[in-house]
Design brief:
- Two copies of one chain form a homodimer.
- Chain A has 321 residues and is an alpha+beta fold.
- The first copy, chain A, is 33% helix and 25% strand.
- In chain A, the strands form three sheets. In chain A, strands 8-10-7-11-9-12 form a six-stranded mixed sheet, with helices on both faces. A four-stranded mixed sheet of chain A has the order 3-6-4-5. A two-stranded antiparallel sheet of chain A has the order 1-2.
- In chain A, strand 1 and strand 2 form a beta hairpin.
- In chain A, helix 1 runs parallel beside helix 3.
- The longest helix of chain A is centred in the first third of the chain and has 18 residues.
- Strand 2 of chain A pairs antiparallel with strand 3 of chain B.
Chain lengths: 321, 321
């Protein structure tokens, strides 16, 4: 019989440590030493089957994804990842599943400079709760709020791959599937760009939905800034271009598909050169995709010749109908 | 239709803030200002129906309990509660349930000096993930490890009420039910006692199971210290004494019932007066219930005349058979 304590011992044996960890896995709580002159950044995301991953995904993929979506939130604040807690609710004490889950989780943790320092196991319907703690120089916090009319709208990497993989299912190319199951949180980019941007968010719910959060962050939906997006400038990967020659289909994936985990930001035009240099230095593309407009002018999507094209803009809402 | 963002706005409207919160609910992550000269204490516990609470409990009870079990972990480290994140997986976007849940959660948060600064909502089988962050003077961390042969074993408050309420069901008195559904984390006691104790843990899995963690904390089950417990000294509330005149039944609740959330500690005999003074000053009883023995001598339960009584010692294991 695998007990809760067997499983905890297994997790502890595989978790690294360093001088910042005063008390790690196996006590009532973890104790860590924060860095002086830094403030603490904390985020949590829970993942459940069918909503965040599909039943045929490998435990390694699920382990990677569950940490990646949390690290993406730290990236969007410009923070450096430090420590993590893992609250696993499992239907049974399956050591093989747990080991493979940890393979995915801990590989990304190690690459990201993050230590797993604690957590909790419970029995019930599968639910993966991850909490991440990071640190940031208080003068370099990247908030959602702060956008101004005239700002450029820019995004890292490419958009639409993850949603294309979902829509195409078994017909999706390995490159698209990789983007869906193994998103790479833009941690270095978030830190590099934080000093130059006005507002920043990660693209988890879809470009249109997350852009709305950027533009309304000050006003709770009131007095929301407008924006224009240039559809032809939305960055597409070679895999997305190869997946469909239907421009409208690709735009839908790029506008409304979630789960890309790229960073979306607004910045003053005279900061653009600096931000492009920063992202190129870390091997990442940055693309200007539009401009912030005046309050209450709405979102306009513009076609290749600057003409207004109506798009069906949905985005992802976990509780919407 | 209640959207995810409606629910988040509801939570944000009810959450307090203070100068330590640089970025609160509504951004990609929370940003908080740690206290200099303190280290950070982090813990998480997830609660699921039937395992941690019963379907007929009120949302207020569930809100209280889900924070209380997490605060109890901070108490057992001697920490001061500061901030919290709430990762709720809900079957539907039920505003009334959420408001009532928050009534229980936030009332305890306010009494405990804790601010809710962030979290996450997902849709799926009910799962309540809570993360708490606290702070402690690094010289006053109360660890599980550190017990020595000859130490006294002591516990706050009384034992067995929560399990008696579970066992008695509809026949349980209101006082017992209150202990099960509304445990009071021993935060002030944990901080007051931390400088005087050798090892400390909260009684969540049951006295015997949690005592084993205290005694094996250095050795991962090897070279575990022995202990003697005086059954007649186990502190019982008037409600437990009224519930049954069967001494054996009460001892079973006190030894193996979980969910009391009292603090269990080991301490050198010459610190006893200080610890008793500390706990009396905050209106809490402290009872010496046994002594730590030599390694590998096992656990002995002694009857009223010091005779050895065999008890069936189980304790709670979430994954055991």
């Amino acid at each position: 019989v695998t007990t809760e304590f067997d499983l905890i011992a297994r997790i502890r044996a595989r978790s690294g440590t360093d001088a910042s960890v005063l008390v790690g896995i196996g006590d009532d709580a973890a104790v860590v030493q924060p860095t002086s002159d830094r403030v603490l950044v904390a985020s949590t995301d829970s993942l459940v089957p069918d909503r965040h991953f599909l039943p045929d995904w490998s435990p390694e993929d699920i382990g990677h994804l569950s940490l990646a979506v949390n690290l993406s939130d730290l990236a969007a604040m410009g923070a450096t990842p430090r420590w993590s807690l893992l609250a696993l609710t499992l239907p049974e004490g399956d050591e093989v599943w747990l080991d493979r889950f940890l393979d995915g989780f801990l590989a990304l943790a190690e690459r990201s400079g993050l230590l797993l320092v604690g957590g909790n196991l419970a029995r019930g319907p599968l639910n993966i709760g991850v909490q991440v703690l990071g640190e940031v120089d208080p003068s370099r916090i990247a908030r959602r709020s702060g956008s101004r009319p005239g700002d450029l709208i820019a995004v890292t990497g490419s958009l639409g791959d993850a949603d294309a993989a979902l829509k195409l299912g078994d017909d999706a190319s390995p490159e698209l599937v990789e983007r869906l199951r193994r998103p790479q949180p833009r941690i270095a980019a978030g830190q590099a760009m934080a000093p130059w941007i006005h507002g920043m968010i990660d693209v988890s719910d879809g470009l249109v939905a997350d852009l709305a959060h950027l533009l309304e962050a000050n006003g709770l939906g009131n007095n929301c800034l407008g924006a224009e997006l240039d559809l032809d400038h939305l960055p597409a990967s070679p895999a997305l271009l190869a997946a469909s020659s239907d421009r409208q289909w690709r735009w839908q994936r790029q506008l409304n598909g979630g789960s890309d985990y790229e960073l979306l930001m607004t910045l003053p035009p005279d900061h653009l050169d600096s931000v492009v240099r920063q992202t190129e230095a870390i091997g990442l593309r940055l693309t200007v995709i539009g401009r912030v407009g005046q309050p209450d002018t709405g979102l306009k999507t513009l076609g290749p010749d600057g003409e207004h094209l109506e798009m069906n803009n949905g985005g992802w809402d976990h509780f919407g109908s």
